[in-house]
Every structure is written in structure tokens, then in C-alpha cells.
Amino acid sequence: MSYLFGIIDFSGTKIMEDELNKLDLAVKGADFVSHMELSEKYAIGYSHNPGRIPNCAIYKHKHLVLLADLRIYNTDLLKTYFEFGNQCEAFAKAFLKWGVQCPKYINGDFAVVVIDLQTNEAHLIRDHIGARPLVYYQKDGRLIFSSHEYGIAKMGLFRPKLSEDKLLRRLFRFKSKYSQTAFEHILKHTPGHVLTFTQSGILDSVFWKPEKIATNYRISFEEAASQLRQLIIRATVARIETGKTGVHVSGGLDSTGIACILADCIADRNRLIGYSWTPEELNDAGDDQNEKEFIDNFSTDKGVKVRYLTVSSSEFIKDMVDPEFEIMQIECPTMRMAGEDQVTTLFSGWGGDEFLSLSLRGVFNHFFFNLKFRWLYKFVRKYGIRSTIYFAKNEVLPLFVPFGLLPTYRPTDWIILKLLKTSFILKHWKLIFFHHNEHVFGYGSRKKLIIKQLKLYHLPARMDSWAYHSEKFGFEYKYPLLDKDVLEYWFSLPVNFTFEKLITRGLYREIMRGILPEPIRTREDKSETLRVKYLVQNMTNGKEYLEKLFEAIPDQDHLPFFKTKAYRKLFESSFPKKRRKKWFFMERLYIYIRNVELAKKYIGK
Question: Domain residues of the chain, as ranges?
Fold first, then answer.
């Protein structure tokens, strides 16, 4: 990807060249190459790692001006509608033909800004799933946009402020609003939507509605698996670029399946490198599943080198408190390794758990509320009474207990209130005491569960962070299991295909027949207990390091609503003994330190 940025004015105020230069400097990474254009109504540009050919461009067609971070994977289909010489021209002609609904016809990864000089409108467009990031700030007839919120916060054209709502939700582990960044009024553009900005206001148009896709009841399970196999292979191959290619290899079904397709398509094995989150040193593995056995099986079978996770506790904690790295910091070592190896793309099986390789999560709920007694009986027979009670407790019972009084996954730790000043608690009392996490399973339909998970936007939340950081290392992430054609075909299948014969991930196992080595394809389930144990261990081992960071914060830099003395007292006298409790406690500390660093770096005093 590249970092795109720009300013559009609807009020008639002239945009100064100095403003664009400030935005450019705030957005781009060190030594990045920039391309900019300034006119009376707009000032736009993009910057990219000098070691990488940019996938971004400024393009003009008739009365349209496009700033596009764009890859299109169905150009053959678009050529049946109109001729074009490049992908930007294809997008421009699609917009002229279909307007804001044009992304319905485009399968790709993109963040595009379309400026219509004829109507004096600006359209911000993201792909269906959010593979390319886009954020914006709008006030007094002026629109500022960028690939990441940190550039807008740092540019100096207005004084940013930390989002207290976002911080509170992180501290209490409440559901976060995807659109809200770490800064107030700087918002993320929601995937699958088009935002149209005019002098009179903002119009939000939704173009991707998977819940509206009709179900094909005539297709067989075998036909569906065969067709999906071809679509996934096509989606993976379409994303291969020249140069070295990296791929996540976990030993599980999703990422290893993509890795196998790549290995079968890339003849020169020196071009393909696997990266694993599994620790290189498996100390104190206990009874946990040894993922290295499956990873080594793939490596030997396909002749692909795999690099394992190597990171010390201190390095891990440094990554945890990186103020810009918001999601999944365990990926930091992988990014560094990929940068050292000079890969151009890094493939991930991210998204498989939510769709194609969906486990049996939510199946009991589906059977219960749809009165499928025969299937309930089969479920009990296959998994036993104990497992059935577990699924009933988590998927059904909370729906009968009002106001979220039955915590399903993680109870609220009210000890956090001791660390916040009374005035701050009173200011946010509604969020703190009346917050309700909607039960994700709902009443009955497994397909509704899948749509709900999609609308949580945890997929693009991670992809946003990864995209921002990977560009600094000179590579780009690819997510073939989230390809638009793949997902739309999957959504058209009968819901019972997702629990065929009550085999967890049964459809994906059938899809991967002949692709994955059999020991991996037929393993009972993906185990992440070892990786989680490794994370918890590194977090708790970093207690002393985090405490030093906290003590080193000058009094004037502490957030004004936080009781530092109360935290020190709690830290010294009540530090929990259980490992998982320690992890939760340490996680709250790193969230606080991270926000202190954000305030120092982007807001100042």
C-alpha cells in the first residue's frame, strides 16, 4: 500500500501549499517518497516506501479526480462493461457508470477518494472488508483525510484530543466503536460504505450487504467445496506479486492452507518464506499441543523455510506499549523479520475463523432457537452432556438474563474505578455503569451470528494497524480468504453446510482436500493454548519493566483523570497471584502508558 492524504474545502477558503506540506510530513514515514497536487478546491497526495513500487496514484478522468490506493482482481469482468487501460481508469469509469454503488461490481482491496468537480462532491470509498485503511476529520466545510489517524493528529492544523470514550472502553473491555480512533473527531471510514461529502452535509451509502445474498438450496456440499476451492486458489494467485513472498504458517487450517496454495504456485521456493507465531523455544509446553510438529510437517512437505517467533519479554513489552500499534502486537516480530527478508507481500489466513473455516461456535444456539430437536440430539450424542451444558451456558442462557447481568466471556473488573478520579467517573457514568455488550449469538440464526461478527469490525481493526506498520517495512498484507467473490459465494450457501455432520470446520477441511497435508487437514482442531501461554508469560515477566516505565512518567505527563498514587498502592499491595489475573492487570497498565505516550507525541500540553 501507500499512505494517501489530502484536504478538500467546500467553503471557498483557499487551501495553502503549506497546509498540504504539513499533512504530507505528518503522514509519511521516514525517507518516504511523496507525490502531491494542489488546486483551488483540493490538495491531495500520497507517499510510499522508496523500496516499493506504490499501488497508489492520482488520476483524472473527465470531471473526476481520483486519489486511489487500489488493486482490482476482477478486471476481466469489468472489461465486459467498458474498456480501460489501467485500474484507476477502470474505477473512474465504474463510478461514472454506477455512481456510489460502483464498488458492488469491483472485487479488490482499495481506499479511493473521488472528487467530482462537476457536483462539488467528494466520495470516500473503502472496499467491502476494509483491507485498505482510510480515516477523516471534517469541520467547518473542510475535509481532511489520510490512511491513518496519526498523520491528521500530528499535522498541526487543529489541536487533537484523546478520545476518552475509546480509552474507557479499552480499560473496561467494553465493545469499542470501530469508527472512533484514539483521537476525538478523527474517524475511521467504515468498510463497505461510501461517504459523500458536500457543502450541506455527509451522506452514508452502503454498497456491500451480504445479508441480502440469496441462498442457493440446490447446490450440493461437494459442489460448494469444489467451487470454493477454485475461488480461493484464484484469489490467492491474483494477489501474488514479483519478489519475495511471506506467509503466516500457524500449523492450523487457515493460514497453512493459503501457504500450501502459494507453495504449489511459486516454483522458486527461495521466493517463499513462512512466518510463525509459535515460539522457537518451547519451554514448559506441558500438555499443550505442539504446533511445531504441524508447521514442520508443512515445511518438509512443501520445501518452504519457516521462521519461528523469537522475542524476549522486554522486546515484547516494548511492542505492547508502542502507542501506534493498537492491535495484535505479537505480529511486530513477524514484521521485523519480513522487513529483514525484503518480502514484498505477506499473506495471512486472517478471516477464516469467521467465515470459511467457521467452527461449531453458535451451532447450539442455532439448533435451540430454531427448534431443531433432531440436531440437538445429535449434538448431545457427539459431544456429550458436559460440552452441551457449556455451549448452552454461553450461547443461550445469557439471552434469558437481562441487562448483561450474566457475564458470558469476561466479567467487568470494577477495581479500575479505584484508579479514576470521581469527576471523570461522573462525567462518563452512563458508559461505565449502563454499558451493555450485545450478545453476539442473538436469537436463533447462525447466519445472523456471522453477520453480527462481521459488523463488529474486528477484522478491519486489525488490518488497519497492520497496514500502517507494514508500509514502513516495505511490504503489504494480503487476505485471500476475505476476497469479495469468495465471501459472496460462501454467503450464498445453505447454513447447514457450516456444520455438516457436526464436524468442526468441516466445509473448509473438504475445500482443502488435496491441498493441505493430511496430518494438518484432519487434525481435530487448531490449538492456540501454547501461543496464549507464551503471551501471558511475556506479559507477566515484563511487570518490572512496565513498572519502571510508569514511574518514569513525569507528573505533568500523567493523564489528568488518573490517580497515580492509587495505582502505585494497588500495584504494591494487591498485585494478583494468578497468571491470567496478572495478565489482565498488566494489560490495563500498558493501555494507560500507551495513551500517555499518544498524548505526549500528538497532543502535547
Answer: 3-208, 212-358+448-526, 412-438+542-605
Among 455-459, 550-554, 601-605, the minimum mean pLDDT is found in: 601-605
- Name the nearest CA neighbour of 396 among 444, 342, 458: 444
Which residues contact residue 145 at a Cβ distance below 8 angstroms, ignoring those fewer than 6 apart? 4, 5, 6, 8, 113, 124, 134, 135, 136, 137, 152
Q: Which residues contact 118 (CB under 8 A, 6 or more apart)?
A: 63
Q: What is the mean pLDDT of residues 362-369?
A: 92
Domain 3-208: CATH superfamily, name plus number: Aminohydrolase, N-terminal nucleophile (Ntn) domain (3.60.20.10)
Question: What is the maximum alpha-carbon separation in the chain?
Answer: 72
Instruction: Give how far Cα 429 sits from Cα of 421, 425, 497, 589, Å.
Output: 12, 6, 45, 22
> Grid coordinates 455438516 are at which residue?
500
Taking CA atoms, 53 is separated from 48, 218, 242, 243, 499, in Å, by 8, 45, 11, 11, 43
If one looks up domain 212-358+448-526 in CATH, what number appears?
Answer: 3.40.50.620
Could you give the CA distance from residue 50 to residue 34 in angstroms, rounded to a whole number?
9
Rg (CA), the chain: 25
SS (HEC) of 148-159: CHHHHHHCCCCC
C-alpha cell at 175: 465493545
Q: Is 201 exposed, middle or buried (0-12, 13-18, 19+ CB in 10 A)?
A: exposed
Residue that wins the pLDDT comparison between 402 and 335 = 335
- Is the model's pLDDT at 117 over the cut of 70? yes
Q: 50 is written with which cell numbers?
A: 522508496
Give yes or no for a contact between 252 and 280, defined as CB atoms under 8 angstroms apart: no
